């Protein structure tokens, strides 16, 4: 019979570098940001920024456009890289689409009102 | 064998009238309650401590079994854990001489019907039998004594308290009523059953897992003082709803920013910066301290954004308290909780990609 209670555990044991495997902890670069912007009138723009490199933004844009029945474009930004820009408020649709296609909900951040 | 061991301690307990603050502890200390089993087995065998692998809990028991003057104190705690010291006290006031013993006997009975019969869980069936016997035999002292001895012999391991019973045969008359009053073990089953139900280890001789003991602790804790349960729903943190007016066609005015910032103990600049990045717009603060936001925004949407701000920068992640301080050190913001003392870094407010809205020719110019 093994006794749990007497198992020794060294609380000061070296745990190694907590950031070893993930250098950019605290940076927001690993999030997918979905934002909204108001245009004139009731019109809005939805932007998707921070797409992981394993996804092809062009194909994703095509899928978005087809799925959401909206127009959109791929914008090249110096800092943010390629950003998908869609017409209208597609935030909820984008996030559900991404989650359904195997993305982790925790990595998706929806901004705006 | 065990009687002499426990007697002195018991007497001490009488004099001391154990601190009541330890009562609540009794709940979580329950698992140690079935101690007598092992103690007595060892004492009966004449050996002190011979069981190979020991849990810490078993060791505790043995310590108590070992019983020095010093350990008498532990004993006290132990007893206190068993339940109603108060009741014991009351009994004490009866004749001191034999009151001691009667006092000993009664608390057992009292304590068990009380909160949850912590001690009895293991050998409850035995106890029951015994009690019934006692009740019957109460008048016939000798028979009673015999029976108890029998039952003791039969069920080797019992409560220490039980073993003290035979000593007090001379004044069972006193106990009598008490015992009869407490006799209804049927009741006691119910409360103890609640606890006993989830004690999966009772059937086997395996060790308890940490989670089991933890749930048991919380169960009994909440049973003992339900006031603790409501700690979650204490005073709710409220903030006045944002007042949003429309200025013209394209601007919204957030009238009570400063008020809300004050309530949250945050710099208005920080809150405003967050609002602007979240909403993806710009704006300014006018002379009256109101925030003018470009674009049309509903009160509800601003409220949502503020809520997100609260979660991100105000409430403590550890204790959910809104009583926090935001400080900046080396370009990194830290939130320090005033109520629990925890401290964590928070993301700086970073504006993301801003799509170009409006005429591009205007921007170029």
UniProtKB/TrEMBL annotation, chain A:
- What role is this protein assigned? Probably involved in translation.
Q: What are the SUI1 domain coordinates in residue numbering?
A: 32-102
* Chain residue ranges for the region called Disordered: 1-21
Keywords assigned? Initiation factor, Protein biosynthesis
UniProt superkingdom = Eukaryota
Alphabetical list of PANTHER family matching this protein: EUKARYOTIC TRANSLATION INITIATION FACTOR SUI1
Matching entries from SUPFAM superfamilies are given as:
eIF1-like
* Species of origin: Coprinopsis marcescibilis (Agaric fungus)
Asked if Protein biosynthesis is a keyword of the record, the answer is: yes
Which GO molecular function, any one, fits this protein according to its record?
mRNA binding
- Can you tell me which family this protein belongs to? Belongs to the SUI1 family.
What this protein is called in its record is Eukaryotic translation initiation factor 1
| One Pfam family per UniProt | SUI1
InterPro entries reported for this sequence: SUI1, SUI1_dom_sf, SUI1_euk
UniProtKB/TrEMBL annotation, chain B:
Q: Where is the composition biased (Low complexity)?
A: 23-37
User: GO: which molecular function terms?
Assistant: mRNA binding; translation initiation factor activity; translation initiation factor binding
Please name the taxonomic classification of the source.
Eukaryota, Fungi, Dikarya, Basidiomycota, Agaricomycotina
One GO biological process from the UniProt record? formation of translation preinitiation complex
Which organism was this protein described from? Coprinopsis marcescibilis (Agaric fungus)
What Pfam families does UniProt report for this protein, alphabetically? eIF-5_eIF-2B
Give the highest taxon in the source lineage. Eukaryota
Give the family this protein belongs to, as stated in its UniProt record. Belongs to the eIF-2-beta/eIF-5 family.
The Translation initiation factor IF2/IF5 domain covers which part of the protein? 234-343
Region entry Disordered, spans: 21-41
* SMART domains assigned to the protein according to its UniProt record, in alphabetical order: eIF2B_5
Task: Supply the alphabetized keyword list.
Answer: Initiation factor, Protein biosynthesis
What cellular component GO annotations does this protein have?
eukaryotic translation initiation factor 2 complex
> Which protein is depicted?
Translation initiation factor
């Amino acid at each position: 019979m093994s006794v749990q209670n007497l198992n020794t555990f060294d609380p000061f044991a070296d745990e190694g570098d907590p950031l070893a495997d993930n250098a950019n902890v605290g940076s927001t670069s690993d999030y997918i940001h979905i934002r909204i912007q108001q245009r004139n009138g009731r019109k809005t723009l939805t932007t998707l920024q921070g797409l992981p490199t394993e996804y092809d933004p062009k194909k994703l844009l095509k899928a978005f456009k087809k799925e959401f029945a909206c127009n959109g474009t791929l914008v090249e930004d110096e800092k943010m890289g390629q950003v998908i820009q869609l017409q209208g408020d597609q935030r909820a649709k984008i996030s559900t689409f991404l989650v359904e296609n195997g993305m982790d909900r925790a990595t998706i951040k929806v901004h705006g009102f | 064998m065990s009687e002499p061991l426990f007697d002195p301690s018991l007497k001490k307990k009488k004099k001391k009238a154990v601190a009541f603050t330890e009562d609540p502890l009794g709940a979580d200390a329950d698992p140690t309650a079935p101690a007598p089993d092992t103690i007595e087995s060892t004492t009966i065998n004449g050996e002190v401590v011979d069981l190979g692998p020991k849990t810490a809990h078993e060791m505790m028991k043995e310590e108590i079994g070992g019983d020095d003057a010093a350990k008498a104190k532990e004993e006290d705690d132990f007893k206190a854990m068993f339940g109603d010291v108060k009741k014991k006290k009351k009994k004490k006031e009866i004749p001191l001489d034999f009151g001691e013993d009667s006092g000993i006997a009664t608390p057992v009975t009292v304590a068990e019907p009380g909160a949850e019969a912590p001690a009895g869980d293991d050998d409850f069936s035995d106890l029951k039998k015994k009690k019934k016997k006692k009740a019957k035999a109460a008048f016939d002292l000798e028979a009673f004594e015999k029976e108890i001895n029998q039952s003791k012999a039969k069920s080797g391991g019992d409560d220490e308290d039980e073993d003290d019973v035979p000593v007090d045969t001379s004044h069972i008359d006193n106990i009598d009523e008490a015992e009869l009053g407490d006799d209804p073990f049927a009741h006691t089953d119910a409360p103890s059953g609640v606890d006993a139900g989830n004690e999966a280890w009772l059937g086997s001789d395996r060790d308890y897992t940490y989670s089991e003991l933890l749930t048991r602790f919380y169960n009994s804790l909440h049973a003992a003082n339900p006031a603790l349960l409501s700690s979650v729903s204490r005073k709710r943190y409220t903030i006045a709803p944002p007042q949003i007016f429309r200025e013209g066609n394209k601007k919204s005015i957030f009238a009570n920013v400063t008020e809300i910032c004050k309530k949250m103990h945050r710099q208005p600049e920080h809150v405003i910066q967050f609002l602007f990045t979240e909403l993806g717009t710009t704006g300014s603060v006018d002379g009256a301290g109101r925030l003018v936001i470009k674009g049309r925004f509903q009160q509800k949407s601003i409220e949502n954004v503020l809520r997100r701000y609260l979660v991100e920068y105000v409430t403590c992640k550890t204790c959910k308290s809104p009583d926090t301080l935001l400080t900046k050190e080396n370009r990194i913001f830290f939130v320090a909780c005033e109520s629990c003392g925890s401290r964590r870094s928070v993301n700086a407010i970073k504006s993301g990609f801003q799509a170009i809205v409006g005429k591009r020719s205007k921007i170029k110019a």
